[in-house]
């Protein structure tokens, strides 16, 4: 068992012991060296929340590091644990638990370095309170502003401003007042409703558990008093029931229950409910739990509901009160905090996870990005790590949602990279866009099958991908000639050509290439719908967009052909002299040289242009097509 596992077991015991007390979740944020770890370490230790094995380890560490006079260096404990978890990468937020007679606490310790915004957002998404630490000698920093912006973005309404290291400025009231006033101005700009400022020396314990004699001019609470008494209840009582279905419980033919945690409202047997997004209605029959059936259940409780009717309900659906259901939509205005190493590219599909539902989503437009230090709106074509943008989102299917301001569970989402499964963004849904609401799919009587029948062929999209000069155009051209000779109806979409018309507004940046492929894939889809065999010949360098294109077609309709020519060979051919230009630095973002090419992993066909002639390769494609 690792140290972390044993801590987890202890935590479970602690939580059980404190089960009857209120629970407060908070995060700590601040710049490096503001004293975060010391603050948390002391809170844990002085409230006797430290687990004994960790305390022993801590004292040993302190001795090893030669801390003054055998004193415990509290910072060591948390920094040590954080480092340990960092090796496991992904989330290195350290969740710590402690309790007093009045409350129990879960604190997410978010590392303060720039690149750790991801951890902070993770911690903040469930917290009720944020402790923002500021070094009294340094005042408000860019990092303080950034963290406070994220705190407000993620809906934390209560901030404890801990002006730390007051001992180093002689507990000077003027210093404290100036920082507190500056912060209140910032908070009101950001819409943070409740700010309490405390003059603190985390190291010495002044105003930490009890009020300190060193600050007779201060009559507010100590940090712990604040945490024990702050009222974070939200007025959710008037919201109707919302239960996102986590799983369908069907142990046998006679029982079918829908399990999940109630995120708003309450429920009783007999209540009328609606299931979203389908809109089907039913009535609650039982509220089942491990401890027996309940007469009523409310927000925060994990339950299994059984319904009067046999409805088709699956994970991700939301069971809601009939009188007051959440909305359903597939297009949104949203705030997106980008956490990916690679930039956000409009048009690229990501997985969006909202409540218990996962759907494919893309950003259709970045309205602007927000300078998190000044709140200025800046023009943007993409979002880089740690940037926040106001975006339009498009989902490939409708979901039940609520504005984040009203309900964090049904309004807060994350975006996941479809290749790496890494979390690349955290975001909030602001409101639904109505633009598609009044547009309905127009039924036509002559359909794709009818069009294909008259052409006596199966429509296809043959997608050639490869480096510039690999041979895409040459081979596609030969394939078309052969198909034409056989009486087939075809069309070639060639990158060079389409860029002269439909896509003449696009260049060769990553984001322009994503849009280039999105458009040509849509055109290819229309053409196959018209019954044609379409040959697409685009470099299409990114796996994500080739996959997006593939998903637009039926399973045997899309044939990915990798024209596999090594870079050195394509460069030697240099049909258009572009490689020479790129090498000379006169052509930026050139594929293979200053812009990446991601080779297909599982194409339907791989053409080795060193092994065979264009003619032979074209014949291979035709044979694959006409099987
Ligand atoms: N910077 C840069 N990088 C790559 N290619 C460049 C560039 N600048 C111009 N060209 C010419 O544009 C053709 C590629 O366009 P595509 O639309 O196929 O490219 S992409 O799919 O959007 O990556 C490509 O055609 P092919 O050589 O037929 O592939 C080039 O002739
Ligand atoms: N086996 C092969 N397959 C395709 N092209 C080849 C082959 N061998 C040599 N070539 C030459 O390589 C060049 C490929 O250029 P092109 O078809 O315009 O590539 P792309 O469309 O991928 O940029 C042509 O001059 C072609 O004659």
From TrEMBL:
CDD domains recorded: APSK, CysN_ATPS, CysN_NodQ_II, CysN_NoDQ_III
Keyword Transferase annotated: yes
Annotated residues for binding of ATP: 466-473
Catalytic activity: adenosine 5'-phosphosulfate + ATP = 3'-phosphoadenylyl sulfate + ADP + H(+); sulfate + ATP + H(+) = adenosine 5'-phosphosulfate + diphosphate
Pfam families cross-referenced by the UniProt entry: APS_kinase, GTP-eEF1A_C, GTP_EFTU
Domain Tr-type G: 21-234
Enzyme class: transferase
GO terms, biological process: hydrogen sulfide biosynthetic process; sulfate assimilation
The protein's annotated pathway: Sulfur metabolism; hydrogen sulfide biosynthesis; sulfite from sulfate: step 2/3; Sulfur metabolism; hydrogen sulfide biosynthesis; sulfite from sulfate: step 1/3
Biological role stated in the UniProt entry: APS kinase catalyzes the synthesis of activated sulfate. Catalyzes the synthesis of activated sulfate.
Family affiliation: In the C-terminal section; belongs to the APS kinase family. Belongs to the APS kinase family.
Protein name, as recorded: Multifunctional fusion protein
Organism field: Cognatilysobacter bugurensis
Organismal lineage: Bacteria, Pseudomonadati, Pseudomonadota, Gammaproteobacteria, Lysobacterales
